From TrEMBL:
<dbReference type="InterPro" id="IPR011250">
    <property type="entry name" value="OMP/PagP_B-barrel"/>
</dbReference>
<feature type="signal peptide">
    <location>
        <begin position="1"/>
        <end position="19"/>
    </location>
</feature>
<protein>
    <submittedName>
        <fullName>Membrane protein</fullName>
    </submittedName>
</protein>
<dbReference type="Pfam" id="PF13505">
    <property type="entry name" value="OMP_b-brl"/>
</dbReference>
<keyword id="KW-0732">Signal</keyword>
<feature type="domain" description="Outer membrane protein beta-barrel">
    <location>
        <begin position="19"/>
        <end position="204"/>
    </location>
</feature>
<dbReference type="InterPro" id="IPR027385">
    <property type="entry name" value="Beta-barrel_OMP"/>
</dbReference>
Amino acid sequence: MKKLCISLLLLSTSSYVIANEYTPTQTPKISGFYVGAGFGSFGYSEEDSWGYSNNKIEAKADGNTAKVYLGYQFNKIVGIEGTYTNYGKVKAKVDGYSMEPTSISLAANLGYTFDNGIRPFGLVGMSNLDLKQNKEYLSDDNGAAFKFGFGVEYTPVSLKGVQLRAAYEMDMYAVDYIDVQNGFTTETNLYALDSLYIGASYKF
């Protein structure tokens, strides 16, 4: 009986040690700095067609979105994230008008990291837009925008810090368009730049 008890004690101790050794690899990495990149589609929408006099301009997205993002996740719920986005090109069918917008944003990343590594999340924050127009039809080529988005991340335990992401993000802004022919600013419209993308990051 004494030998059996000693054997059970040793077995229990060994099991405890092995469990402790492997516990860190059983759950995803939670807090830390991360940096990543993404690629996806580009969408552009406007509240109304615009332009000058009776020559209305209706612009359409052309190309794909590329982005670089970095941030810090404090716990399973809260993080903060900065993103640089190159949206692609917006072209109009008339007058050769185009723009190639980019944005730099700072947003709160709010979600929940489950033990299996899946994390649904939402983004809300502000962006600084640079529209890069080839012709100055919009009065503000640079300005602030409201940033929001949502998506899901997956952190495979076996990859130790690698995060895979699928997400949708939008920059929404309001700006006056210019009546070039008459030389004065007319009405204010709402515009939106959005992207549906996949990305990968590494958490340190």
